[in-house]
Structures are given as C-alpha cells and as structure tokens.
UniProtKB/TrEMBL annotation:
SUPFAM superfamilies: (Trans)glycosidases, E set domains. The active site is at residues 239, 276. Gene3D superfamilies: E-set domains of sugar-utilizing enzymes, Glycosidases, Immunoglobulins. It is found in: Cytoplasm. It comes from Amycolatopsis regifaucium. Pfam families: Alpha-amylase, DUF3459. This is Malto-oligosyltrehalose trehalohydrolase. Pathway: Glycan biosynthesis; trehalose biosynthesis. Substrate binds at residues 237-242, 301-305, 371-376. SMART domains: Aamy (SM00642). The lineage of its organism: Bacteria, Bacillati, Actinomycetota, Actinomycetes, Pseudonocardiales.
C-alpha cells in the first residue's frame, strides 16, 4: 500500500512500517511517498530518528505519541443505507460528552441511552470532540490528531457504531470539531511543515493565509469532509471560529461551506455547519449569494447570557450588560444584545445587527446551559444547583417557545444534581501541574480559595462529572423531565412554536422585568419571574401547559411566583 506525508521543508523522509524502515520519494507540492506492506507506521524526517505519528492518521490505538495504524473505512458494515438525514430547522439538539454521559464512558455505553433521547424528543445528538488527545480523560478540546477517534471511547469503529445506532432511531449526529488551535501535548504538526502561525488564547493557531497555507487549509477541509463522508455524520459544530485568523479574500469558513454543500449534493442528505463565534456577526450565517460565508447556523451566547441573568441574578464579568431590564426582550426580538453597541466587558463596541426580516431564527442556537457555561465555572455547578425549579421551568419554556433552534446539555432535562467540572489527564507531570495551578490561579482572581477549585487532574473530578442516571425517576427530577418532554412535544405539534420568523415575534414585559409574554402566532407564553403573584394580560381562553397553578380569566392570566402558562388566544 502507499504511504504519503506532506513535509515540504524536509530534505529526507522515511516511513517505518511494522519492523521495517523505507525511504520515501519526493513528489509534487512537498509530498513524499513510499510503497510498503504493514499496518503500524510512523514517519522519520531528515536525520531525526524519533518516529512521528501521521498528521492525517485515521487510528491511534496507543495514544497521540505512538505510531499510527492503517484503517480502512470500507471495512465497516454500515446499516444506515435508508438514512436520508435531518435538516436543522425544527430540530432540538442535545449536547453530550461521551466520557461522562454514562458510567462506561464509551460510544457503546452511550448507545444504551439513545432511547432516552428519542423519548425526550431530541432530533440531533451533539458530541463534544472525540478526536485523539493526550491522556484518557478530558473535554476533547486539546486534541492533536483530528482524524483519529479517541481510543478509550471506542476508536473509529466505536464512533461508527454510535452513528449507525443513532440513525436507526431517527437521530442525527453532530460532532464538535476544533480547528482554531491544537492541544499542548502531541502537536507535532510543526515538525512536518508550516502548519502553525501565531498563538491564540488556547494554543498554536493554524497558518491559513501565509506561505504554504494551501495544504494547511486542505488539511482542515479534508478532515471536515471526512467526518461527513466516512463516519456518516450529519453536522459539525465548529469551535471558536473567531480565532481562525484568515486574511484571504475567500475565508476558510466560506470555502468549507462551499465544499460541504457540494458534498451534501453528492451524498443526497443535509450536511450542516454550526459555528461558535464571539463576533456577533450575522455574516457567518448569511448566504453566499448575499455576501456571507454560508454557514448554516451559529451559537447565540447573548440569549444564554440574558436568560442566565434573568434566572440567577448574576451580573459579574460578561453578564454585567445583560442586567439591563430589557436585555431578554432584546435578544428574543433581535438575536444579539450587542449589535454595534458598547460592551462593558470588552471595553469597546461589539457586534452587528441581525436583519431579522432576512435571517430565520433557526440559524441561531439558543440554550440555558452548555458545556462551556457550566464547566468553565469554578465548581462546574449547573443552574439546578442554585435556581429554583419554577424559575428553571420558565427558562425552559422560553427556550422551547422561541424562534431559535433549542439545545440542551446532558442531564439538564431532569435537573441533574451532578456538576460538570473541568478535567484532564495529561501524563506529563509538568504539564499536569501547569494546568492545575493555572486553573486555581485563574479563579483566585475572582475570590475563590485554592481548595474550592476542583483539581482537574484528579480522577475524582471526572467521576463527580458523570451523570447519575438513577436520578431520572426520583422526585423533583422526574417532574422536570416530564416538563421538558411536554415542551418539546408541543414545539413539534404546534407549528407556531417552531416558526423561525423572528421579525414576526412580539414580546411584552413588565416595566421592572418581573414578567414577560411571548407572542407565538395564536399562542401566548407568559412567564412570571417575580417573587409575588402577577396578573398578566394575555387575551387567552385555554391553557395548554402550565407549571404549578395558573388560571386564565378572560384576557388575563393569574400566575403564582416563578411559574409560566402557555395559552391559546381567541380567534
């Protein structure tokens, strides 16, 4: 078989295949090639006798520092021939981490819980990164070999079994991919060529627009298309795209969207790109015909921040601006809170307005919680640790009745009591200590004592973060799960609730922000966030769903504290 590697600056390249070493021949464009027989291989560059794994490795059974292994995608027996995919509009996403979703922490163990997601009403399962990273446990954002699936989770065959099982249940699969940086251990790309250019907040960034960048861009795009084609994935969530430094006339994201749409046409099923971005720039999800990048959706942190402040009262850090009484109303009607307006956290103006007459709401993902907003808190505490069930219910009702694509984080649906904390397992003791002390130093600046911040290298931190599935049937958790089921069912059954036309949305609020009414066609969602009973104008005659005790009297709803009512108006 043929082994190839891109190493444009090398004067010599060899490939070690099983026990033999073979000289490689220089080809066009900095590529080297050799024919040999075997299954375990690594590369030797110039006169360096330290073998390196393949940057385009498909399989790393022994970790990111060891030899790669040949993997043939055609050998897997897929059973999803009838799968035609799922479009994002009308969808409900469920974000999960394979390592802590179940006690087993593997793809096969996660398959056993897919029926729970079907029963809940989820349409898309989003996996946190599953490509290879150093160690056994981690969030996955320190990956270094983007095409190889993390072996402790089950390797490439394990991921394929998971996707196959999900498709058999009508669930699309989204994968979180990280192209903005590489992890601190096992990132050997710079040994092969000009892959890196500068640093960002998390590590070395990619060379996307400098000399030699054509192959680097190809590296990213081929990796993305490979997830769609070879693993039958339905969507990719692109991590922190604002950190992709690219000054070319055609941005990498636009190029990726163009090629993804082309592959979608070939495969005959929807393929979706979802960006995480801190830019508040609708250009990402604006069509290419209108001058945008043509991505299909992006996360909406502003909606999360407004909901978080409304439910918790927290106003520190980037939450400060969202303490404005009209913050929640604004993000519901306008998508972004910062639309070329002042951001006190950034100490500058930020963002650009969304043309809601043109861009549909389904292109923006809304959420009460996600891995970042929980795990990047000092103790990884969920909303359910501090927010009363009634207020949580109001937040969930707003999320599922909004025109945006809703996403929830694993365990949120039953108000899981388990935290989700930051953890890693770097074998290098110096790196492990640097991560440990860095985490504690970061939160000490915000008043946390050293002993209060969990040790990310302690296996107990991982164990605390695993979901406790026995909670599902317990009092308090059972009721919240039923509420989530009902809200998702109503969103599916009532077209008004999934209607993505943001421009048609009407929102009414109390002057002090204690209550809010969301107009969704002929439906009214009224939420009382206050600590006292509220009489809220509705114009409704029939209650469809309520949390706690609520009554409708003519055109007015009477809501106890921290409750909501969904009502249908008179024709």
């Amino acid at each position: 078989m043929r082994f190839s590697v891109w190493a444009p600056e090398a004067q010599r390249a060899r490939v070690r295949v099983d026990a033999g070493v073979h000289e490689m021949t220089a080809g066009d464009g900095g590529w080297w090639h050799a024919d040999a027989e075997g299954v375990t291989y690594s590369f030797l560059l110039d006169d360096d006798d330290v073998p390196l794994p393949d940057p385009r490795s498909r399989w790393q059974p022994h970790g990111v520092h060891e030899a790669s292994r040949v993997y043939d995608h055609s050998e897997f027996a897929w059973a999803d021939d009838a799968w035609t995919g799922r479009q994002l509009p009308g969808g409900v996403l469920y974000e999960l981490h394979i390592g802590t979703f179940t006690a087993g922490g593997t793809f096969d163990a996660a398959i056993e819980r897919l029926d729970h997601l079907v029963d809940l009403g989820v349409t898309h399962v989003e996996l946190l990164p599953v490509n290879s990273f150093d160690g056994t446990a981690g969030w996955g954002y320190d990956g270094v070999l983007w095409g190889a699936v993390h072996e402790p989770y089950g390797g490439p065959d394990g991921l394929k079994r998971f996707v196959d099982a999900a498709h058999a249940r009508g669930l699309a699969v989204v994968l979180d991919v990280v192209y903005n940086h590489l992890g601190p251990s096992g990132a050997y790309l710079d040994r092969f060529g000009p892959y890196f250019a500068g640093q960002n907040d998390w590590g070395p960034g990619l060379n996307l627009d400098g000399p030699g960048s054509d192959e680097v861009r190809r590296y990213v795009i081929d990796n993305a298309l490979g997830w769609f084609r070879d693993f039958h994935l339905d969507a990719l969530r692109l991590d922190a795209v604002h950190a992709l430094a690219d000054r070319r006339a055609t941005h990498l994201l636009e190029e990726l969207a163009t090629e993804t749409d082309a592959l979608s046409a070939v495969l005959g099923r929807p393929l979706t790109l979802i960006a995480e971005s801190d830019l508040n720039d609708p250009k990402l999800v604006t069509s290419r015909e209108r001058g945008g990048y043509g991505l299909h959706a992006q996360w909406s942190d502003d909606l999360h921040h407004a909901l978080h402040v409304k439910l918790t009262g927290e106003t520190s850090g980037y939450y400060a601006d969202f303490a404005a009484p009209d913050a929640l109303e604004r993000v519901l009607r306008e998508v972004f809170f910062h639309t070329g307006t002042w951001s006190s956290f950034r100490e500058r103006t930020h963002g650009r307005p969304v043309d809601t007459a043109v861009l549909p709401g389904h292109r923006f993902l809304g959420y009460l919680q996600n891995h970042d907003q929980i795990g990047n808190r000092a103790t990884g505490d969920r909303l359910s640790a501090t927010v009363a069930p009634g207020r949580l219910a109001c937040g969930a009702a707003l999320l599922f009745c909004s025109p945006y694509t809703p996403m929830l984080f694993m365990g949120e649906e039953w108000a899981a009591s388990t935290p989700w904390q930051f953890f890693a397992s770097f074998p290098d003791p110096e790196l492990a200590e640097a991560v440990r002390t860095g985490r504690r130093r970061e939160f000490s600046r915000h008043g946390w004592g050293e002993a209060e911040v969990p040790d990310p290298m302690d296996p107990a931190t991982v164990e605390r973060s695993r979901l406790d599935w026995t909670e599902v049937d317990r009092e308090g958790h059972r009721e919240m799960l039923e509420l989530y089921r009902n809200l998702i069912r109503l969103r599916r059954e009532r077209p008004e609730l999934a209607d993505p036309r943001v421009a048609d949305l009407r929102v009414e609020t109390a002057p002090d922000g204690s209550w809010l009414v969301l107009h969704r066609g002929g439906l009214r969602l009224a939420c009382n966030f206050g600590r006292a009973e509220a009489r809220i104008p509705l114009g409704a005659t029939a209650t469809l769903l309520a949390w706690g005790t609520a009554t409708v009297d003519g055109r007015e709803a009477r809501l106890p504290p921290e409750t909501f009512v969904l009502a249908e108006t008179t024709p």
